[in-house]
Amino acid sequence: MAFKLDHIGLVVENIDKMKELFGTIGLDTGTEAIVNPLQKVSASFVNVGEKDDIYIEILEPASNDSPISKFLQNRGGGLHHLCFEVDNIEDAIKELNSKGFRMVVPPEDCRAYDENLKRRCQEPTKIAFFIVTKGVLIELIEKGG
């Protein structure tokens, strides 16, 4: 199974300030921040690849009970996860489970990803999260078609 880097998740207190900072080093201004109600986060994607294929996902808590609120409070933000695109999320999950990785968020639809990157899909994108080792979170993404 091929795992291709899709994005790097970065938790911040303020998306707009981080987008402004990235702009000062010549990166694009990123997508409009979109709220993902399932994950309780606001997210914006800044392209860092050559063909709109690798992004930094800037994440900000959308509510006090957001899963990243505690991360922000305890660590002050920073690198949150690495996301890898896979062709089949169920097969990728089986592979990671067989290698001892622990799933912490089972597969769920992520229409916010499609909306944020203006992807028109009949089937929504699916995501799942795994703990690889202490402090390393991996997201799998199967893009909707």
Account of the protein in words:
The chain is of the alpha+beta class and 145 residues long. It has one domain (4-142): 2,3-Dihydroxybiphenyl 1,2-Dioxygenase, domain 1 (Roll). It is 24% helix and 39% strand. The chain is built from four helices and eight strands, in the order βαβββαβαβαββ. It has helices at 15-24, 67-75, 89-98, 111-116; strands at residues 4-11, 34-36, 41-47, 55-61, 78-85, 102-109, 126-133, 136-142. It has an eight-stranded mixed sheet. A hairpin with a 7-residue loop joins strand 3 (41-47) and strand 4. The longest helix is centred in the N-terminal third of the chain and has 10 residues, at 15-24. The model has no long low-confidence stretch (mean pLDDT 93).
Please provide a brief summary of the model.
The protein is 24% helix and 39% strand. The protein has 145 residues and is an alpha+beta fold.
How many domains make up the 3D coordinates? 1
Radius of gyration: 15 Å
C-alpha geometry: globular
Q: What's the number of extended β-strand segments?
A: 8
Helix/strand-derived category reads alpha+beta
What's the name of the CATH homologous superfamily? 2,3-Dihydroxybiphenyl 1,2-Dioxygenase, domain 1
Encode the helix/strand succession as letters: EHEEEHEHEHEE
- The CATH architecture would be Roll
CATH class: Alpha Beta
Query: Please, how many helices?
Result: 4
The low-confidence runs, each spanning 5 or more residues with pLDDT under 50, are none
